[in-house]
Amino acid sequence: MFPLDFPLQQLAAFTQATRVLDPFCGRGTTLYAARLAGLPSVGIDINPVAAAIAQAKLVRVTPGAVVRLATRILKEGEPDDIPDGDFWRWCFEADTLRELVILRNALMSLNSPTAAILRAVMLGILHGPQNKGLPSYLSNQMPRTYASKPAYAVRFWKQRGMEPVRVPALQVIERRAARLLAATPAAHGGRVYLGDSVQTLNRLRQHFDLVVTSPPYYGMRTYVQDQWLRSWFLGGPAEVIYGSDGQIARQPSQEAFIEALAEVWAATARRCHPESRLAIRFGTIPSARTDPERMLLASLEKAHAGWVVKDVRIAGTPSKRARQAEQFGKAGSAVDEIDVIAELADVPQ
Ligand SMILES: C[S@@+](CC[C@H](N)C(=O)[O-])C[C@H]1O[C@@H](n2cnc3c(N)ncnc32)[C@H](O)[C@@H]1O
What we know:
7-stranded mixed sheet, methyltransferase, Rossmann fold, 349 residues, SAM-dependent_MTases_sf, DNA binding, single chain, site-specific DNA-methyltransferase (cytosine-N4-specific) activity, transferase
């Protein structure tokens, strides 16, 4: 995720913006910044977990509405397709798993703003450490940020004799919704599309005048499989998926990656008004042995779409730059990041 400051600064510097686009929206930081600035926005991401979290950044509902929806689903829904096997028996207590499956089944076909928030709440409470006092997560002991692989997790729980405890889903939902929605700003519209950015942009009808985005960094692995349990909750299979599902970073060569980015910038230009602004944060890891500036500028040039580069900067605020320089000196493992600002000069081809 890039810090909220980056899209906020771009919005502050381009006050004529009326509609914002992020073709690699991740968890929706740009969309949230647009909302704070009072603007509608559209985000696209190929990762279902990222898209579901981003969608929740656009809507405004009350905690009461979320709890009412969850209560209704738990009362009326069906516990079809409860996954079976060692992992599931050790990860969730039987009644908790039943509730989880009922909520999963119902949410797969619900698209209201309240459902978007309930979905994001569920992704947040699905797994995490067991805390003292009232539980915050539905699973047996697990990291919060990524889901352990099943065989490893089962060994961990068995060796320690850690049986899963009953966690009533509704109680955790209620607490999380209250916290998440405590002070939400007014919503200003927009939408998140789950899919490939080029394909989705080609289908869109809207036009934008500010694009703030960050493609996957070159050389950085995307750990899609670490989110396997959250992917399952969103309708994916009940096992770890090792594919990369159209992730743009999984290209066979640097040239292919540049080519793929160029297609995104061209498709973006077709959806933008003349004189639109494009702000990109991009980076590579030092072991990728390449220059992010060269790669990004080459991709903009290859797009032949009318994007004229106005500025190239080292990413971040001066204090962050200093911190980065320090890290480089010490460990040599910091990510090399730049910000590129371009403007759409001509009517795009
Ligand atoms: C660096 S992250 C963006 C993070 C985002 N700025 C945030 O604050 O959360 C890049 C995103 O691009 C997405 N992505 C990769 N390939 C894509 C494609 N072909 N189409 C759409 N999104 C893609 C990844 O799933 C990932 O979420």
